[in-house]
Amino acid sequence: MGRKWNNIKEKKASKDANTSRVYAKFGIEIYVAAKKGEPDPESNQALKFVLERAKTYNVPKAIIDRAIEKAKGSGDESYEELRYEGFGPSGSMIIVDALTNNVNRTAPVVRSAFTKCGGNMGVSGSVSYMFNATAVIGVEGKTVDEVLELMMEADVDVRDIVEEDEAVIVYAEPSAFQAVQDAFKQAGISEFTVAELTMLPQTYVTLPEDAQAQFERLIDLLEDSEDVQQVYHNVEFED
């Protein structure tokens, strides 16, 4: 199912390691989640989820606190959640999730990225039907059998539990995200290598070398947009 999750996450983390881009995007996401309800993660599940994700990307506490304080105070920016779907080179499929305070700015930027890199935008549902919304939670220091036992003891249904590199990754329905985390926390595990709600492709494609370069440029252009929060795709990169 998610055999390439760690490789994809490491590639993204490596690219973002020396930039503030990922932190800025988390700042917006935390602000939006905090504005939706109480700015307290104990009573706001959306905020709690974002903060758990932020921890796995080592987002500085100062950025988190600033976003929450802004939500508590006079921050009145209005953000809209948008999803774009499209096709990249050689049969690749891409989903783009955005948070924007200016729809008229975001759509042209996303469309331009596809056009410049040999792709094209699709209509709603043209790509997403080939992906499954999935909760992905990873831990270190446990075996697959030990994690399976923890999930069974907590009566949590999961799709799959696999070992990837040095971590054990649990794949589950999005609605089970909190239950999986709670099962780990009850066992004394509070640090996660990954804690995401993501879109995983049902099948992967491998691109020829020239198309892969074009595809990577497309992903870079999309992720460079200040409004784009997540980019999901069905491309399997060669090791």
From TrEMBL:
It holds the Pfam family TACO1_YebC_N. Keywords: Cytoplasm, DNA-binding, Transcription, Transcription regulation. GO terms for molecular function: DNA binding. Residues 79-235 form the TACO1/YebC-like second and third domain. Residues 3-73 form the TACO1/YebC-like N-terminal domain. SUPFAM superfamilies: YebC-like. It is found in: Cytoplasm. Belongs to the TACO1 family. YeeN subfamily. This is Probable transcriptional regulatory protein I8J29_04000. It comes from Paenibacillus artemisiicola. The lineage of its organism: Bacteria, Bacillati, Bacillota, Bacilli, Bacillales.
